Structures are given as structure tokens and as C-alpha cells.
Amino acid sequence: MSPEQREQIIQLLQKGEELSPEWARILFPPEKREYELVYHGKEREEDILANTLAVPLQAVRTFGKNGGDEWRNMLIFGDNLQVMKSLLELKKAGEICNADGTPGVRLVYIDPPFGSKQEFKGTQDQKAYQDRIAGATFLEFLRRRLVLIRELLAENGYIFVHLDQKKCHHVKILMDEIFGEQNLLNHIIWSYRRWPSLGRNFQGMHDDILYYAKRATDTSRVFHTHYEPPSESYLKRFQGKTQILDEETGTKHGVINICLC
């Protein structure tokens, strides 16, 4: 956008006039992004990466013996945004590597708040955690962390984001912006059973898990298929009609269930 165009927009807004549709291509050039989720308080990715402060990680307690092995696990207590900035600096310094020497994190699974505006308690009625952040504040809270996670991921890394139906569709658009729609591998539905209800609505009986790759073209991805023996009722109904051969054991099954590991 040229300085003259900026000045013209300012003058129109100061006069209280509406911007004509012709300004849309100037304000939101299609070559920059085909679509995006717009909301109040949305920061530029460059500002998120530059303005997030790193915090020093200090060892407080260790468990077990290292035994000379360089591999180590860490449980980190702190603001996860600042912690991830610290981990990103470690990655840049070559201190976060996989067994094959590639830098970065291979797998990330997050179960963020669902933007429910609720306070949750434990089994003894003690306070567990608050889920009070909602609306645009929630979206930017999560988006800032997703931007840092993308930078932390190895080139052959993957991320799973666990949500529910309230914010899943908003976050899907954010994930497309941050990771690229072409890198969506699956929208997983985790279905579970509920007790009978007399309520005047359908019961919520599933959660959503968005599964993205840093690069969907990566050919090293491993997907394990697991077989489950068919139930007695299934055998009575379908045995002899459909059979699937387990390549590892050579046994035949009447049903196949696939899960991700």
C-alpha cells in the first residue's frame, strides 16, 4: 500500500465514511493469503516471535539415573509461551536434536483449554483449573503458541491439537494459516459413549483432534495398522462374507479397526 493510499483511507475514516469494496484488494491482497481469520488483537507472526521473552530453565529436581546416556526427559513448570521461546533458542543452538541428528521436536500433542468460560474442580471438589479465556482472546492465546510450535517442529515433525466443537472450526482456519492447509493430514473424531439422556438436544459425544505435518510431503511418516479380533455377534452375522488377512500373523479377520499410534 502506498503512502497516498494510507492517507486517503485515514481521511475517509476521519470523515466517518465507509470504505468502498474496491479497497478490499488493497487492504487484503489475495497474493498474500487466500483467506484468513480476522479478529481483534491479532498480532503479526513476526511480532510474536520477536516480542516473546525467553526464560532461563533451571533444574529443580531429577528422577532416576542418567547412566551415561545423553537422552533425557524434562517436565517444565512455567509459562509455556516463554518456555517454548527458550526451547526455540536451544533448537537454534543445536541442543534439541532427534536420534538421527535432525534439529527440532518430532511430535507435539496439545490439549488446550476449550474456551468454555468454566471453572473445573477435582474429585474432592478442589480447584483444578480455570477455562475462562474466550472469544478473540482465546484464539490469539492459542495462535501465539501454535506459531512457536511450528518453529520448534523438526522438518519431519507433526502436531495434534485436541479440541471440541465450540472452537474447532475457528482453530482449523488458524492452523491452515500457520501450518498450511496442504499439511492437514486428518481431522480425527474421538467418539465416546454417554449415558441415556432426556435432554431436548443431541448429546455431545465426541472431541476433535486436528493432525498436521510440518511437511505433508515427508515420506518417512510411520503409520501402524492395528487389528482387533471380530466380536462374536459380528462373526455370526458376517463370517464367510468378508475376510481380511493379517499380513504379520497370517490369520484372517472379519473386521478391521485402524488407530493411530
SSE layout and pairing:
Blueprint: H1 3-14, H2 24-27, H3 45-51, H4 80-92, E1 105-110, E2 118-121, E3 127-131, H5 135-152, E4 153-163, H6 168-179, E5 184-191, E6 206-213, H7 232-238, E7 244-245, E8 252-253
Parallel strand pairs: 1-4
Antiparallel strand pairs: 2-3, 4-6, 5-6, 7-8
What does this molecule look like?
Helices cover 28% and strands 18% of the residues. The protein has helices spanning 3-14, 24-27, 45-51, 80-92, 135-152, 168-179, 232-238; strands at 105-110, 118-121, 127-131, 153-163, 184-191, 206-213, 244-245, 252-253. Helix 4 (80-92) packs parallel to helix 5 and helix 5 runs parallel beside helix 6 (168-179). The two termini are 48 Å apart.
Structure in a nutshell:
The protein contains 7 helices and 8 strands, in the order ααααβββαβαββαββ.
Core attributes:
261 residues; alpha+beta; 4-stranded mixed β-sheet; two-stranded antiparallel sheet; 7 helices; globular
| Distance between the first and last residues' Cα | 48 Å
Query: Which ranges are low-confidence, i.e. pLDDT below 50, for 5 or more consecutive residues?
Result: 252-261
- Helix/strand-derived class? alpha+beta
Shape label: globular
Q: From the alpha-carbon coordinates, what is the Rg to the nearest angstrom?
A: 24 Å
The fraction of residues in strands falls at 15-25%
- Give the SSE order as H and E letters: HHHHEEEHEHEEHEE
**Total of helices:** 7
What topology, given as strand order, has the largest sheet?
1-4-6-5
Quaternary structure of the protein: single chain
The residue-averaged pLDDT reads: 80
